[in-house]
Amino acid sequence: MISGGFDMGGSWRSSGGMSSRGSFGSRSSGWRGSDDSVEVDPDAKAFDQDVVRRMLPFLAPHRGQLVVAIFLVLVTSCATMAGPYLIKVAIDDGVLKEDARILAFAATLYLLSLVVMGVSSYTHGAMIAAISQRMLHTLRVRVVTHLQKLSFRYLDSNEIGVIIARVTSDVNALNNAFSQGTMTLVADLLGLVLILAVMLLLDPALSLATFVVMPLMYLITRIFSGQARQRFREVRHRVGQVYANLQENISGVRVAQSFTREDLNYRQFQGTNRENLDATMRAARVMAAFPPAVELVTALAIGIVIVYGGYRVLNDAMSLGVFVAFLSYVQQFFMPIREISAWYTNLQQAMAGGERIFQLLDTDPEIVDKPDAPALPVVDGHVRFKDVTFGYDPKQPVLTNINLEVRPGETIALVGPTGAGKTSIVNLLMRFYDVQEGRITIDGHDLRDVQIRSLRSKVGMVLQDSFLFSGTILENIRYGKPDATMEEVEAAAHAVGIDGFIRRLPDGYNTAVMERGGRLSVGQRQLICFARALLIDPHILILDEATSSVDAHTEILIQRALATLLEGRTAFVIAHRLSTIKNADNILVLRDGKIVERGAHDALLAAQGFYAELYTTGVSAGMDGEQSLEEPSAVPST
């Protein structure tokens, strides 16, 4: 009988075989489910020719190994089939005829076939595992590489969890079906053909009598496959809910504790986990019912062999050796049928995963280089927006008829309420998106006419979200310039005033930061991001709310550094704090996607316009002397 259980991915993991192929080898017979995020669409194709066709290039580099592996599968199947036949020879020609030489010869060949089967089975298994892992690597690299090229618009319209599922669960499901699953199918089909051939050669009449149980086997398999797919879908759905609830509770543990929500959150998780348990138990009952049903059919077939075959032996219509061999072949006959049934559902899952993967790979990046686009040469930083209109939804523009000119070395501040279009302007400058109308140039070069990499290599950007990668502080500062010398790294850190803090850490610049920099304060993370941008020595610098999360002392350090670091660089500064923009050469005031005012701080105040209104509101609502240039009803953000 099968023993095992479901893992957290909603997959049944078998820990034992149900029966062996006669006395001559065994194979585990557990049903293999799929990862929790790979769901089976009830209307999905069981076999999609397009997915198969597009998977062939991933198999092509390994076709030599595949041919060898298939040959070894054939060798394994032949050696397996030889066992019962050699037993038949040993009984009929050795034992019954009292011929010791034939008995010894049959026994020797039997042992030799065991060795051949073991070696060939291990070798083709290792080869398929190697091919599987190489395919998995190639396919996953292809997907991740393509994801890196996709435009922000794609990432904006798709959940991160769904994208991650493409790279993990869908790739695994597709890989398993086309490498390990395909070879299992080949082995099972070869085994079925050989078993049928040998049984018919040994005794056609007994073979036909045995096949009477096949309609019953087909009916059981059909019912089981449908029930299993339905139950596994439910399990994967419930497991997904458990993961989502667990992730939310871990991510929001500080909020939960501050509002004393622990008991309520526990009860909610307990309910979600109970639903997962119930779904898993329903699937387990289906799993528990299938092996006894198959055993019953196998027992019926064996019973037919014993009754009808025994009768033929007693009437000298069949030898005792054939009778024993036939019993062994009947036991082996239902194993591949069982595994093919399991493979069918795995194939359906793989087809659905493959369709989703190739849909992703077929998504063309919106932002691409023109053919033979030149690299952007060394620039002075003269930026112009000419009649620029842009919207994340082309039908709903967020910027309308934007015209601005920033001369080399100037610092431009962008202010305005939430949703005014400040961040959209710098997103267009980085060419994360393309304009719908108008053009943007740097030193006269249209951004759409130059290589994207060369453009972004000349622009440094510090965002409000101080994102740090897993690794050391040194690696994070070097992120944009991996070959930077230690002196260059230290100079960048010193310029933003964080060098002293880093040196006081136990491992200095080699101190490891946790995911997203969890061991550091918000201000420290922001300063490291600032040093990271400065290290690439950008011609143009963008500060998108870069000082919004730092305290007053840290901001003073940055302000001191900026006076030197911005010299000779064109800078775009988005900020709500007055201290970060009052010294800008020009302030652009945006409202509803349009520039409504522009000029120096004092001139704008004197004009008593929208900027003065924002300033007055910020002073009256400011804390600790920090003025916020944001409408009172707006949430501070860009």
Task: Write a short abstract of this structure.
This protein has 638 residues and is α/β, with parallel strands linked by helices. 58% of the residues lie in helices and 10% in strands.
What does this structure look like?
It is a single chain. Helix 6 (about 180-200) packs across helix 7. This protein starts with a strand and ends in a 17-residue tail after the last helix. The chain has about 650 residues and is an alpha/beta fold. The protein has 20 helices and 14 strands. It is elongated, with a radius of gyration of 35 Å. The protein is about 60% helix and about 10% strand. Strand 13 (about 585-590) and strand 14 form a beta hairpin. It has a six-stranded mixed beta sheet, with helices on both faces. The relative contact order is 0.09.
- The radius of gyration computed from the alpha-carbon positions, rounded to a whole number of angstroms, is 35 Å
Number of helices: 20
Low-confidence residue ranges: 1-44, 619-626, 631-638
Mean of residue pLDDT values: 78
Q: Which range does the strand content fall in?
A: 5-15%
Helix content: 55-70%
Computed structural class:
alpha/beta
Strand order of the largest sheet: 8-11-12-5-13-14
What is the molecular shape?
elongated
Main beta sheet strand tally, sense and closure:
6 strands, mixed
Distance between the termini: 62 Å
Number of strands: 14
